Amino acid sequence: NQELVESGGGSVQAGGSLRLxxxxxxxTTGGGCMAWFRQTPENEREGVASIFMNYETxxxxxxxxxxxxxxxxxxxxxxxxxxxxLKPEDTAMYYCAEQLSGCDSASWSIxxxxxxxxxGTQVTVSS
Length: 127
Prior knowledge:
By secondary structure, this protein is mainly β. It has strands at residues 4-7, 10-13, 18-24, 33-39, 46-52, 57-60, 68-73, 78-83, 92-99, 116-117, 121-126. Strands 2, 4, 5, 6, 9, 10 and 11 form a seven-stranded mixed beta sheet that branches.
């Protein structure tokens, strides 16, 4: 069965960087979409960034544009989220997700559109 396993979370000071990784147990084909979401106890789960692998089209939340970069390595079957200039408000549990049908501007940030989820990795940013 397909599995998504996140890693790379941790605690950093504001302005620091982290790189999250999401390893899939099977090869993710170009027809799919993979994404990073984040969630806190107080906030709804929100889309951070997604990549539609057919065209390597990327989508980002306005709050992270210019600071975060989503990418994937087909050989390693791994999704990444490079997070730079981290802010305290970035503190959250970050989840990797996948939808097999791909994504577009309407669906990339909708949690219900994604059928596969990892367990999450915690990111904590202190001032």
